[in-house]
Amino acid sequence: MAGEKGNGTRGSKRDHGGGLDAACERWGGKRHDWLDLSTGINPVPYPLPELPSDAWTALPDSNSLARLIVAARECWEVPAGLEVLPTHGASAPIARIPFLLTRQASGKVHIPAPTYNEHAAAFRNAGFDVVPRIDDRPVDATVLVHPNNPDGRVWTAGELPDTGFLIVDESFCDIHPERSLLPVVATRPRTLVLKSFGKFWGLAGLRLGFVIGPPELIAPLREMTGPWSVSGPALTIGAAALQDTAWAEATRARLDTDATRLDALMAAAGATLAGGTSLFRLYRTDDATAMQERLARGHVWSRRFPYSSEWIRLGLPGNESDWQQLEQALA
User: Fold this and answer.
1) CATH number listed for the domain at residues 54-244
2) Alpha carbon of residue 239 to chain centroid
3) For residues 79-83, average pLDDT
4) In 119-149, which positions are buried (b, 16+ CB within 10 angstroms) versus exposed (e)?
5) Do domains 20-44+246-330 and 54-244 have the same CATH topology?
6) Three-state SS for 217?
7) pLDDT at residue 6 is higher than 70
8) Mean pLDDT, the chain, as a whole number?
9) pLDDT tens for residues 24-36?
10) Fold (CATH) for 20-44+246-330
11) Omega before 147 cis (within 30°)?
12) Domain ranges of the chain
């Protein structure tokens, strides 16, 4: 049903990772005492390049924006005919995209659940009904998170809807760029692909995201976001990171190794792998609340979901000290 908890429903708190301050209040300690594994952000971020002083003092200029767009096109091999719109994080366009749609007779959007709940919340704010399962009624739009959060499901070309507005959220796809659906959707009308810089490059606080799509959709979205949507530091850092292919390749290899290590630790603690990506792992336990509390007593914060009593999700530790803290919490 459209009103499932944890999927951005009316009257329910939006469920996200984080909440470390509340964990400190309940289990003690200061923020620096805790290992926060409640998000899927790369714990070893891209090293910040030296920034020119005017990145902080001047309004972002068109040349810096153009360099970032060129870097994004090259990094993701954006097909000709599609435009790239940098934004202040992926959440900003998620909130605005539903307003691009002209309200049709059905007023419905299909969002397979469970998934990242901001999409459903945004469409409801625009007056749409969210249907996590398709029946014989038409829908105006479909949102696919690829790979999905929290279970890591990937979508294939054959699973894409034939008609209607399509949003493909590839916030976690940079771990496996070969799985991107950009080549598939390049010839589809009314399709947008979202990219998140903060997840793979580990700089979520920079607030940088991208929307890729045809000019007739990008133009009105650009008007919605307004001028200077992306900060000067984000323009410079983003361009440098997207062009650093050696760092990206080494990072993918490290993430794969660390994900395997995490799986072994959790298996020894009685959890079984239920899905995920190399940036976050989803485990099935007999009691997710008990497992979260077990970890919290060792000052390790994890993610539970309001719609499952068995699922618990963990990000990756970033260094050997973090790994030791996790092992001690599980012991």
Assistant:
1) 3.40.640.10
2) 19
3) 96
4) bbbbbbebebebbbeeeeeebbbbbbbbbbb
5) no
6) helix
7) no
8) 92
9) 999 999 999 999 9
10) Aspartate Aminotransferase, domain 1 (3.90.1150)
11) yes
12) 20-44+246-330, 54-244
